[in-house]
Design goal:
Helix content is about 35%, strand content about 15%. By secondary structure, it is an alpha/beta fold.
Length: about 260
C-alpha cells in the first residue's frame, strides 16, 4: 500500500521514542536509542528500576525474564549480575546488547549532537519509599540538568503513574517538568495534576480517542499533554489535530515521516 500523506500542522507533536525505537530494536538498549535519534525522535522514554546495590537501570518489567537471557527480579539483582545477561538477542533483530543504566542513557543523550529530551518513568515508587526519585534526581544533578531555566528548555522530564513520585520530584526539583500518567477522571480533568504540581498529564491513546477535550483543558491551565503509546496513522492524525504536545511511540521513524514537513 502507498504511504499515507504527511500531516501538516504549524506546531506538530514532538515524537518521543518509547523505550527507544523499540519495534525495530530490543527495548531500552543503546541500539534502540541510537536508532531513535537517527530517525529524528525528539524525545526518548525510559523506565527506571532499582538494582539490589542501588543503581538505576532501564528495564520495564519487574523481572528480566522477557527481555534478557536470564531470569529474576531486577531489584533483587546487582548491576554486575545484570551486566552478565544479554538484553538483545530475544528480539527479532537478534544481536546481543548489555543492560543499560540511566547514567549510560544520559551520557548517550547529552553527548549527542542532536538535542533530545529524556522522559524518565519511575517504577515501583511505593516499595522503596522515594529512593528511586532520590537517586534519579542525584543523577540529574550530576549531569547538570536538574534545574533547567524553564520547562521548555529542560533536557529531562520525570513521568510516573504515581502521584507520590511526582510530588516528591516537584518538591526537590521544582524546575523539572513532570507528567502524571494515567487515565482517571481526576487526571483527565486536571485536579490530580494540580494536587501534586505536575506540569503535564499523560493519558493513554485509548482514553484520548474518547476524551480529546482533555488536551485543551490541560493547555488552558498551562499543562502539556503526553500521550502513549501511539503507533497507528489514525491515532497520530487525531493527536496532531487535538494538539497533543508529546507523542510516545514504538515507531519513531515512521511517525516522524507522517508528521513531516512541519
Ligand atoms: O510512556 C508511558 C508508558 O510507557 C506507560 O506505560 O507500561 O509502557 O511503562 P508502560
Ligand atoms: Ca514506560
Amino acid at each position: 500500500t502507498a504511504d499515507p500523506p504527511p500531516i501538516r500542522r504549524p506546531q506538530r507533536p514532538s515524537v518521543v521514542a518509547h523505550r527507544g525505537a523499540s519495534a525495530e530494536r530490543p527495548e531500552h538498549t543503546i541500539a534502540a536509542y541510537e536508532l531513535a535519534i537517527a530517525q529524528g525522535a525528539e524525545g526518548l522514554e525510559c523506565d527506571v528500576r532499582l538494582t539490589s546495590d542501588h543503581h538505576l537501570v532501564c528495564v520495564h518489567d519487574r523481572t528480566v525474564d522477557r527481555t534478557s537471557s536470564g531470569t529474576g527480579v531486577v531489584s533483587e539483582m546487582s548491576l554486575a549480575e545484570l551486566r552478565d545477561l544479554d538484553f538483545g538477542s530475544w528480539h527479532a533483530w537478534g544481536r546481543p546488547q548489555s543492560v543499560l543504566t540511566l547514567s549510560e542513557l544520559l551520557t548517550l543523550a547529552l553527548d549527542h549532537d542532536t538535542p533530545v529530551r529524556l522522559f524518565i518513568e519511575t517504577k515501583h515508587p511505593v516499595r522503596y519509599g522515594g529512593l528511586v526519585e532520590q537517586l534519579l534526581l542525584a543523577e540529574l544533578h550530576r549531569f547538570g540538568i536538574a534545574s533547567p531555566p524553564s520547562a521548555d528548555h529542560s533536557r529531562a522530564a520525570v513521568i510516573s503513574f504515581s502521584a507520590g513520585a511526582v510530588w516528591r520530584v516537584r518538591r526537590n526539583a521544582p524546575m523539572l517538568p513532570t507528567i502524571l500518567l494515567g487515565d482517571t477522571a481526576r487526571i483527565l480533568g486536571g485536579s490530580a495534576a494540580t494536587a501534586v504540581g505536575a506540569t503535564g498529564i499523560g493519558p493513554s491513546i485509548m482514553t484520548l480517542r474518547d476524551h480529546p477535550e482533555a488536551v485543551d483543558r490541560a493547555a488552558a491551565s498551562g499543562r502539556a499533554t503526553y500521550c502513549w503509546t501511539v503507533d497507528e496513522y489514525a491515532d497520530v492524525t487525531h493527536c496532531a489535530r487535538i494538539g497533543v504536545d508529546f507523542l510516545a511511540t514504538n515507531h519513531p521513524g515512521r511517525i516522524r515521516q507522517w508528521l513531516e514537513p512541519t
